Amino acid sequence: MKIELHHLKEISLEQVNAVSRGKGKVTLSKATGKELDKRRKQLETFIEEQGFPAYGFNRGFGHNVDLEVSNDHLSKLQENLIVSHAVGLGDMVRPEIVRMMILLRAQSLCRGFSGIRSILVKQLLKLLEHDVLPLIPELGSVGASGDLAPLSHLALGVMGQGKVLYRGKIMKAQTAFKKAGIEPLQLAMKEGLALNNGIQFMTAIGLYCCLKMQTYLKTACIQTAMTAQVMLSTETPFRKDLHELRPHPGAKKTADWIFKLMQDSPLREAHREYHIDGEIQDPYNIRCAAQILGSCSELVDECLNTLLREVNSVTDNPLVLPVPEDSKEKSYQKYLNQYVDIVSGGHFHGMPVATRIYNLIQAMGIMAGLTNQRCARFVDDNRNKGLGRDLKWPEMSDELKAISSAMMMPEYSSAALANAIWGEAMPSHLFNISTNTGQEDHVSMGAGLAVRIMKSLPKLSYILAIEMAYISQAAAIRKRLEYIPSKVSVSQGIRERFKKIEKNLGDITNPFSLDIQLKEKYAVDPSLRKLNPVGESILSEVSGIFPIVKKDRVMSDELQNLAELISSGKLVELASKYVDFEEVS
Questions:
Q1: d(Cα 139, Cα 263) in Å, to the nearest integer?
Q2: How far apart are the first and last CA of the chain?
């Protein structure tokens, strides 16, 4: 994908996603390059010739704002800012996120309000072109005066310092630059501050998590439709006309997906008549799935909308704004129409993003809880409609069933993972710690929150993988069972006989009641013992990774591989051949 950055144009999620995967070629438009350099020249005239005191240009940083810096040391001021602020710790973030950070910083700077040279944006784009990715530690940002530490590590790469990932190997930036034919860039006045004053670190992580959550949300809807089929549930809770009566957009969307994903199901048709199924309503884990997953969908969408707004925002400080032509301020008169106004503000503060990123851990916790409840139901022979205890293979002898655990334990792991996600839901953005001797007395803590959410994503994929394993096993058992079990209404005559028995039992010294439930078995033709085409297509893909459990075995690696399949989006891709996830009728 070819992407041209222009100071008057926004970039899209599709473009950001392409660049993150190394699939985008990004250039700076000539018009924007000229505009940046024109504005830069005006600033240099204003600052250097007039000696105007400006934070970030010729004054110290943070609480050193009162310290003047001579023209001879303006470049060194910027270099010192970067090397002193590169104090990140912990694991390195993924290459996809680093690419996003580079693109987002370039996009913010190219808007023309940061007072930088065009060569700085071009240097960032050279890193993308040659895939020279600075190593950026996960921890160290409080998400307020920008993601100072992570973005300083990014800026080190711009300068040809620090370490980078290049062609799959970690090396010194200087070495990678020589191999790639890139010249190190010496930062000029304000450019160091322009690089590290922003929240592109937490924004990039948030975008990465949103894209993953979109995959997991669609997967959860696919699995809801498949679970509903093997649990002999109905599609009526997902009808369009029903959801028009309570038109929450997320619920309407997920209900539409699930309803379509349940169509043409032979197994559903086998029990469509009420007297066969004998159930009036399904449990909430299926009946309310659209309301539950719909809420998650809205949380993700709300976060994504905020992040895309942030992608195309200008976030450093101070910013350079045009002086109104009709301004009568005396301080402007001499330089009116020659240079622009330097304004200090707080666009680098991460709270607008932090509050929305928190949406994602809420959505993850809700989805994890829903999936875990369904896993618990699969192994419960009182609630799984004839699938048997722990989904043991029906052809096992009673003796083998007695010594087999079958699929008892994955539900334990599901519970542990759900609890782990809930434990990660601490709202860090509500707990402020003042920094920089009180100058930065309210910080967002959004960066740490974003990292924690990112690290929780695999846990959700594991939970979804566990449910998919249960679905696969349950579907295979349904194909072996010759009948559908059903609750049956007891006739009035039989009820009267039960009452007489209970009365007689109640007359003895130790009374007890008699609870009798009759069940019938409805024969099902083999052609009706299967899921719909989309479900069978997914089962075929899953079976190559997680075979049917006919005897006890180690399942850990298989579940891990199944989680990777889900995370890759392969199941969503398969389902997309049958359902358009982008359009909701």
A1: 47
A2: 30
The Cα–Cα gap between 2 and 24 comes to 6
- Report CA dihedral (43, 47, 52, 55) to the nearest 10 degrees: 80
Amino acid at 231: M
CB burial readout 480-502, b (16+ within 10 A) else e: eeeebbbeeeeeeeeeeeeeeee
Q: What is the DSSP string of 376-410?
A: HHHT-TTTSSSS-GGG--TTS-HHHHHT--TTSTH
Specify the residue for token string 């996009």: 107
CA angle at 102 for the pair 97 and 108, rounded to the nearest 5°: 120
Higher-confidence residue: 400 or 58?
400
State the pTM of this model.
0.91
Burial degree of 121 (CB within 10 A; 0-12, 13-18, 19+): buried
Tell me how far apart the alpha carbons of residues 270 and 288 are, in angstroms, rounded to a whole number: 23
State the sign of the Cα–Cα–Cα–Cα dihedral 169, 103, 564, 466.
positive
The H-or-E segment that residue 485 falls in is strand 483-487
Separation CA 150–CA 140 (nearest Å)? 7
**Same fold flag, 2-198 and 208-303+352-482+526-575:** no
183 in Cβ contact with 177 (< 8 Å): yes
Residue written as token pair 């895309």: 308
**Fold of the CATH domain 208-303+352-482+526-575:** Fumarase C; Chain A, domain 2 (1.20.200)
pLDDT confidence band for 397 (50 / 70 / 90): very high
Q: Is the bond leading into 352 cis (omega within 30 degrees of zero)?
A: no
For residue 17, give the nearest of 221, 299, 209, 298 by alpha carbon. 209
**Could you tell me how far CA 370 lies from the centroid of its own chain?**
17
Q: Where are the alpha helices (DSSP H) in 114-199?
A: 118-130, 148-159, 173-180, 191-196
Residue of 210, 404, 177, 412 lying closest to 298 (CA atoms): 210
Nearest to 252 by CA among 283, 284, 221, 209: 221
The CATH number of the domain covering residues in 2-198: 1.10.275.10
**Residue 362 near residue 297 (C-beta atoms within 8 A):** no
**pLDDT tens-digit map of 70-125:** 878 889 999 999 999 999 999 999 999 999 999 999 999 999 999 999 999 999 99
Q: What pLDDT was estimated at residue 500?
A: 62
Delimit the domains of the chain by residue range: 2-198, 208-303+352-482+526-575, 485-523
Average per-residue pLDDT for the chain: 91
Report the distance separating Cα 154 and Cα 169, nearest Å: 17
CA dihedral of residues 530, 464, 557, 380 (deg, nearest 10) = -60
The residue assigned the tokens 């950001």 is 16
